[in-house]
């Protein structure tokens, strides 16, 4: 009988300590909140690999990496998300968790993205997309462009955020991708304050909430948490760092890592509470506000409809 593969959400909830134990790795020390291991990803003599028991995420303080159970399997087995889910769907006792040699990656992109044009955001479809994410066109124009591009013979367009190496992060209603080279996006203004988000829409959300931010802070969009390691030194040079990272396991792990390595950092994610990120919080809040307005209108209209004849206006 074919085993059903786990979805990502269930796989992330698989206990990391148990996963490590079944591959022969056990805590060097353990408290109610955390367990410390000798890193399963490299050779070391002092434990610098931490697992949060409450949140079920890991951080390797020796390599500035971390994440969920899926991320751990991907690192230990040198495999893709799909392959990690297949391994987690199987019998845990048969995990090899040996470190495979890293084969040379083949370039499969027969049709790389070709940028055709960049301009101010004008297309109505993109403005509608921004509106669905609770971002005004005026705010988006502060950081982003309307980018037209080609993949093979097909032409597309989307919201584009340029990174500091000249590549683009591209978004529209149907697609999310990027061009090479991949890098962080850093908007500088010689400030000693820095605001950090994972993605462009999180940063745009901050600008909706705090329009003055580009004047008081430099802005860093990581574009992927994999770039946290390379940014540690630069982030540490700022006097005040505000972290608006995702509240999933990877984001919380990276937040904790930055708080440890950059003492001038502050975790600001309590602003969006139970939501995954700040944009999701604002979109949901906006929808709730609209629903409340509609509900108030319905109540008023109902009261008028059923009011005594003499009270109608």
What percent of the residues sit in helical stretches (DSSP H or I)? 25-40%
How far apart the termini lie comes to: 71 Å
Mean pLDDT: 84
CA radius of gyration is 23 Å
In the predicted model, the low-confidence regions spanning at least 5 consecutive residues are 91-110
How many H/I helical runs? 11
Q: What number of structural domains do the residues give?
A: 3
Q: What is the H/E order?
A: HHEEEEEHHEHHEEEEEEHHEHEHEH
Structural class: alpha+beta
As an assembly, this protein is: single chain
Q: Strand order within the widest sheet?
A: 1-2-3-4-5
- Major sheet attributes: 5 strands, antiparallel
Which CATH architecture of the largest domain would you pick?
3-Layer(aba) Sandwich
Task: Give a description of the structure.
- With 313 residues, this protein is of the alpha+beta class.
- 35% of the residues lie in helices and 21% in strands.
- It has three domains: 8-94, DNA Primase, Chain A, CATH 3.90.580.10; 113-183; 184-313, Dna Topoisomerase Vi A Subunit, Chain: A, domain 2, CATH 3.40.1360.
- It contains eleven helices and 15 strands.
- A five-stranded antiparallel β-sheet has the order 1-2-3-4-5, with helices on both faces. The protein has a five-stranded antiparallel β-sheet with strand order 6-7-8-9-10. A five-stranded mixed β-sheet has the order 11-13-12-14-15.
- Residues 91-110 have low confidence and may be disordered.
């Amino acid at each position: 009988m074919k085993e059903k593969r786990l979805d990502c959400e269930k796989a992330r909830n698989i206990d990391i300590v148990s996963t490590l134990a079944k591959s022969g790795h056990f805590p060097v020390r353990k408290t109610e909140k955390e367990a410390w291991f000798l890193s399963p990803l490299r050779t070391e003599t002092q434990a610098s690999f931490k697992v949060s028991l409450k949140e079920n995420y890991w951080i390797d303080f020796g390599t500035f990496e971390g994440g969920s159970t899926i991320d751990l399997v991907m690192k230990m087995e040198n495999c893709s998300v799909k392959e990690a889910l297949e391994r987690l769907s199987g019998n845990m006792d048969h995990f090899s968790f040996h470190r495979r040699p890293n084969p040379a990656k083949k370039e499969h992109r027969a049709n790389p993205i070709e940028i055709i044009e960049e301009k101010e955001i004008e297309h109505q479809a993109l403005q509608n997309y921004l509106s669905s994410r609770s971002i005004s066109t005026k705010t988006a124009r502060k950081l982003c462009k309307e980018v037209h591009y080609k993949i093979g013979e097909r032409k597309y367009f989307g919201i584009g955020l340029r990174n500091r190496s000249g590549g683009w992060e591209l978004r529209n209603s149907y697609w999310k991708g990027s061009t090479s080279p991949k890098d962080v996006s850093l908007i500088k203004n010689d400030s000693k304050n820095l605001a950090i988000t994972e993605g462009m829409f999180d940063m745009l959300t901050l600008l909706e909430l705090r329009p003055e931010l580009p004047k008081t802070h430099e802005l860093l969009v990581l574009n992927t948490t994999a770039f946290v390691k390379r940014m540690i030194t630069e982030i540490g040079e700022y006097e005040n760092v505000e972290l608006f990272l995702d509240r999933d396991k990877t984001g919380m792990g990276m937040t904790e890592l930055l708080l440890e390595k950059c003492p001038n950092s502050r975790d600001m994610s309590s602003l969006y509470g139970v939501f995954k990120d700040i944009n999701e919080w604002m979109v949901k809040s906006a929808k709730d506000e609209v629903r409340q307005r509609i509900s108030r209108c319905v109540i008023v209209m109902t009261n008028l409809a059923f009011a005594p004849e003499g009270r109608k206006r």
